[in-house]
Amino acid sequence: MHLRFVEVFCDVAQRRSFSKGAAAHNLSQSSASQAVSFLEKRLGTKLIDRSKRPLELTPAGRVYFDGCRELLERFRAIEDQVQQFHDRVTGTVRVAAIYSVGLMQMEQSVQTFAERYPEARLRVEYLHPDQVCEQVQNDEADLGLVSFPRPSGEIVSLDWQRQPMVLVAPPAHRLASQPSIGLSELDGEDYIGFTRDLTIRREVDRWLKRARVAVNVVHEFDNIETIKRAIEIGSGVALLPSPTVWQEISSRTLVAVPIADSEFFRPLGIIHKRHKQLTAAVQKFIELLQHEAPEPVPGATQAGQADAVGQAPDDRVAGRARGRSRSKRAPV
Amino acid sequence: MHLRFVEVFCDVAQRRSFSKGAAAHNLSQSSASQAVSFLEKRLGTKLIDRSKRPLELTPAGRVYFDGCRELLERFRAIEDQVQQFHDRVTGTVRVAAIYSVGLMQMEQSVQTFAERYPEARLRVEYLHPDQVCEQVQNDEADLGLVSFPRPSGEIVSLDWQRQPMVLVAPPAHRLASQPSIGLSELDGEDYIGFTRDLTIRREVDRWLKRARVAVNVVHEFDNIETIKRAIEIGSGVALLPSPTVWQEISSRTLVAVPIADSEFFRPLGIIHKRHKQLTAAVQKFIELLQHEAPEPVPGATQAGQADAVGQAPDDRVAGRARGRSRSKRAPV
DNA sequence: CTCTAGTATCGCAAAAATTGATAGTAGGCT
DNA sequence: AGCCTACTATCAATTTTTGCGATACTAGAG
Known about the structure:
- Chain A has helices at 3-15, 18-24, 29-43, 59-83, 103-116, 129-137, 199-210, 224-232, 246-250, 280-291, 306-310, and strands at residues 48-49, 56-57, 91-98, 120-127, 143-147, 155-169, 190-194, 216-221, 238-241, 255-258, 265-273.
- By secondary structure, chain A is of the alpha/beta class.
- The first copy, chain A, starts with a helix and ends in a 22-residue tail after the last helix.
C-alpha cells in the first residue's frame, strides 16, 4: 500500500515540485500531495518545506530521500534478478543521448529492442552533452550516449561508434563536386563551427591546427541542425560527422566530401555509472546498440568512398520509440 | 500498493505456510494467497512450490526472499532514522528470552518502556536458549536475553545482570534454617540438577568440582520450574539463581540459602546481531534493561545477606506486556 | 498590492484489498 | 488403495484505499 508513495515522494523531491513529480507518474497533483502527506503523517515528520517556493526538503526529508532512492534502486535490481530466472526482460531503459545521436543512429536497435522485449520500455531523451552526463551521474538515466566519451571515476564508457568526419558543403560549392579533398584545401575557407564549449569544436581545432590549416570561422552554433541550415543558405562549409548529414545528402540539399589525407572520427560512447548493476533490459539494449551499430567503420574514410558516405543507408522513417521521448529539435 | 505484499511473502516463506504467514500479519489466509499470487504474476515467476507440503521456495523465490528481507530491514532502518529527527520512537521490539528470565526480571523495564514510548510495541517470546540465539541469528528477534552469553562472530553480547546462585530447599530441610552455608555442606546431598546440555549445568558442575563437592543427582530437568516443583515435594535441593525463586520464597514454599564460602553468579546478557543497526526503540529498551536491572549486584552474596535474598522485592503481579507474548511455562 | 504559479483540502468515483465460503490437493494413516 | 486431515486456491461481496476535479489557499514576483 505504499511503495508507490515513496516513488512519488522521490520524484517530487527530485523535481522540487509536486505538480512535476505527479506528472512524472501520470498522477494528479492532488494525489502527489496526498501521497506525501501520507508519508509525513506516517513518519510523524514533515519531509518537505512548502514555505519555500521551489520547495525544499527538510533535513528529515533529505535523509528519507537518499535512503529511499537507494532502496527503490535495490528493489528494481532484485525484481530484475528474479525475472532473469525465466529470461524475462522488463522495466524501463532510460537513455539520455546528445542531440546529434538521433533515432537514425539507433533506429534499428530501438526497433529490435521493442520487438524482442515487448515487456520492456525504452525512453530516450535528447539533451545537451553536459546534461547527459549529469543525468547518468544522478541515476536519472541508465545509459548515456555521448561523443568523445571521457570515463571518470564514477562513469564507465563503452566504445560504440566512430563516425568519420566529412566536409559538408552546399551542392553548388566549388569543393562539392570532388570525390574527396585534402584537408589543406580548406585553408581560408568560410567555415561554420561549433561553439567553443563543445568538445567536438576543440577536437576539430586540434585537427586543423596539426594540419596547419586555418579556416575562416563565420558562425558558431552549439548544434548540428543549425550548422546544416547555415551551410544550406551558403554561409560556408563545415566538418561534421557523416551520419548526421545522411538525411540532407539523400535529399540532395547538402553534399558530403570525404577527407582524403587525414583521418578523423567522432567517437561515440555508451556511458553508465560504474557501480550500478545494470538491469537485464539495460544490458540487452547495450548489446543491441553495439551489435547493430549502423557503421562500425573499423577501417577509415578513404578517397573513392564518396558514394558510400553519400548514401543514406535507410530511408524508412524511424518507428517511434515507445514511452514519451521528448521531441525537441535535435542539435549537436 | 505492495510493500505489504512483500512482507507477507517473506513471512509466508519464513514460516513455510500461507496460513501462518497470514496470521502473523493479522490477515486471512485468503489474502496471503492472493498477495503471493500477485507478486508471482508481477514477476512472471513462481516464487513458491506448493506441490511440496511444507511449501518450498523456488530458486527464484529464494533470491527474492533474501533480497526482500534485506530490503525491508533497510526500509525499517530508514524510517527509524527519519523519525529520530523528532525523537519519535516507534516500531516493534522483538525480544527472545530464555524461560527463566521471566517478566519478574523485566517488569519494571517493560512497564517504563510502554509508558515512555507509547507508539512503540514490545513483543517478548520465551524460548529454549538455543532457540533464542537462533532467532537473533535469523533476524527473527532484535534482542535475546540469555544466560552465560557467549559472543561469537555474528553475535554481540552486553552484560546485563549477575544473579547470585543460592541453595534452594524445602522449608523443612535440615539446611533450610541456616543463614548461610558453605558449599562443602552439600556433599552427598540429594540434588535436582539441570540436564547436561544446558550451560548452567556445566557451570555448576565446574563450580562444585573445584570445591571438591559431589552431590547426589537424583533428577535432571531442563527447566527451573520443574526443578522447583521437585524440590517442593522433597526430592532434593538445588542451586538456582536467586531471582528465579523469589515467588516461592515470598509464599514460603521454598527457602533460599546464600552460599558463604564461594562466589558464583549466573550472568545474564543481552545479545543482538553485530552488524545490524538497532532501531531507536531497540536501543531505548536496552537502556531501560540496563538501567533498571532489579539487582545489579556488583558485590557478592555474603553470609548475613540471607534476608535480603529471601525477600521477594515486589509482589505486584506483572502488568502484562503488550503484543502477544506466548505464555508458556517458564523453564530455564 | 495584485497577479501567477504552485499546493492543500474536500467530496465523490474508481480501484484496490480483505474476507468468508467453498472447492481443490498433498501427504499421512489404516 | 483410499479416506482423512490440514493446507491452499478461487470466487463473489464488502470494506478500505486511492485518485481525481474543483476550489480555496499561499509564496514570491512585479
